[in-house]
Amino acid sequence: MRLDLARCRRRFESCLIARLGTIDAAGRPQLVPVTFTMVGESVYLVIDQKPKSTRQLARLRNIRRHPAVSLLVDHYEPDWSRLWWVRVDGTARIEAEPAVMATPLRALAAKYPQYLADPPAGPVIRIDVEHWSGWSAS
Predict the structure, then answer these.
(1) What is the CATH number for 67?
(2) Using an 8 Å Cβ cutoff, are 101 and 123 in contact?
(3) CA spacing 20 to 30 A to 81: which of 19, 49, 52, 63?
(4) What's the chain's average pLDDT?
């Protein structure tokens, strides 16, 4: 069953993790799990202090080259009548100005208490949502 916009948004915002899809320089899709929040009609992600192999992340390079992205959240359980997914498609941009990052960082800290103890330095990725889609088995 196709989900309407209100149900898509409600389910999306209730999730703690999404998969961010970007396109690399060779045109191949890349997925990475991310934390996120919504402020208004935009989705925000942050580059945080969790261990990474480098601070020059592929997702940042990919967004600079190809700003079209997708985010996917989903629910799975053995009872397949309860399956669902929601996808957001949009255009991403990287924000590093402290004044621009302040509101999304507060919203992320409200959703993820870990960020209160260890505030992320950023940058922030802003995704301006252009399309919602979703499906539910029931």
Answers:
(1) 2.30.110.10
(2) yes
(3) 19
(4) 93
